[in-house]
Amino acid sequence: MSLLARTDIDAGGFFVNFNQDCSSLAVGSKNGYSLFSLNSVDSTLDQIYSSYGEDICLVERLFSSSLVAVVSLNAPRKLKVCHFKKGTEICNYSYSNTILAVKLNRSRLVVCLEESLYIHNIRDMKVVHTIRDTPPNKTGLCALASDSDHCYLAYPGSATVGEVQIFDAVNLHAKIMIPAHDSPLAAIAFSQIGTEIATASEKGTVIRVFSVSDGTKLFEFRRGVKRCVSIASLAFSICSKYLCCSSNTETVHIFKLERSSPESSDDHGGKDHWMGYISKAVSSYLPMALPSQVTDVFTQGRAFASALLPVAGLRHSCVITTIQKALRMLVASQDGYLYVYQLPVEGGECLLVKKHDLRTIEPPPNPPRAESVPIGVPSVTPAPGATTYAAAVRGGTAGSSAGSGGSGSIDDDVHGNQQQQQQQQH
Fold first, then answer.
1. Is the separation of the CB atoms in 353 and 343 below 8 Å?
2. 180, 220 Cβ separation under 8 angstroms
3. Does 287 or 349 have the greater pLDDT score?
4. Of residues 363, 352, 412, 404, the one with CA closest to residue 82
5. Does position 314 have pLDDT exceeding 60, yes or no?
6. Span 259-276, mean pLDDT?
7. Which of 5, 133, 150, 408 is deepest in the core (most CB within 10 A)?
């Protein structure tokens, strides 16, 4: 969700955003921001932290660590990286233009402006690469894979057609350009391990999934036939078996990613043969300009399941994850509600399990906020010989100082979170 398109904040709405592993929800508003745990969301929504006083329009949490990146409407060109458990500001960076989006993983922090992208090293916050003169991207559309082993950044390669440019954010070079749609892009999302990317255009009728390695189209789904649909979010499930899509309508669609296996190759072959027969039969009765369109309609998948929201015309962010061994779809709305749905095993209509009001939850008593000396960086390209971020937070350079949340906090949080994820996997 971007800043220039933030009519929700202007109207007193909320910025809602799930973290990379869907373990927490961040909510920003004119009064500040709050973080919520999603571990027991079927029954309760536990508030982890809240900060008051600033009109927050962007907030991103790094997995389950104590690191958050925030941008306020009062200073839309300034990024602040905070250690929320200590109540300190670790550093801040200022940019030449409005920050439209911020993305994080354990290796990189990406800041998106309208015509440029800045890639920071997450451990010391130094700018390692700048992608300049990108096509105008007024909504700040971009995606960063959460898996550090496939640390890819995706952004629109054109302002007139739906090209996806994928950039290797670790080795710092362009990887591939995927011609995904005829119309400009409206939404993009990586799978959990970063090997697949889902796309939707401004028309909002077709959702496609591509292989990141070679750009091969893997899936194509038809969301609907309406042309005036604005796709708000796309998200792969944590298990990568499902893909959910929200828009400005009251319906959230879930598509099932049925991947072929050697055992089912014969069945798929029969299906392909049958679809080919239908396509040829229909083509013989239609004008020459239509067969490819008809074939596309026949081969596009339909929604496996759907959820009905109470209000249309709002922006929603949706994810699919497992909570207490149960598959759930979570939908956070700009009007300050979180909906919890149960996915039906055989598909169909999703069952609403719980509705949480994000506006009425009482804030917990926070510890006193320690005074910190933020590291002000006048531009994202420090002058030669200037004190580096890492040296400043370590106090290794005369005259430099920092709060209690220094670079050690970043490094410890990132490393500790990696160990926690590895233990969970084993």
1. no
2. no
3. 349
4. 404
5. yes
6. 47
7. 150
* Contact between 9 and 35 (Cβ < 8 Å): no
Q: Is residue 206 within 8 Å of residue 225, measured between CB atoms?
A: no
The alpha-carbon radius of gyration of the chain (Å, integer) is 22
- Token pair belonging to 103: 């993305």
Q: Please state the pTM of the whole predicted model.
A: 0.80
Quote the tokens at residue 30: 């004119």
Give 132: exposed, middle or buried? Use CB within 10 Å, 0-12, 13-18, 19+.
exposed
Close Cβ partners of 60 (under 8 Å, ≥ 6 residues apart): 17, 19, 26, 68, 69, 70, 102, 103, 104
Residue 392 phi, psi (nearest 5): -65, -45
pLDDT at 9 over 60: no
Partner residues linked to 33 by β-bridges: 28, 51
Amino acid at 279: S
Strand 348-349, strand 305-308: pairing: parallel
Q: Are 200 and 209 in contact (CB under 8 A)?
A: no
| Sequence-separated contacts (24+) of 374-378 with Cβ below 8 Å | 374/80, 374/89, 374/90, 374/91, 374/92, 374/403, 375/90, 375/91, 375/92, 375/400, 375/402, 376/92, 376/94, 377/91, 377/92, 377/93, 377/94, 378/94
Is the separation of the CB atoms in 245 and 230 below 8 Å? no
Q: Which of 289, 300, 294 is nearest to 224 (CA)?
A: 300
d(CA 230, CA 315): 9
Chain-wide mean pLDDT for the chain?
Answer: 81
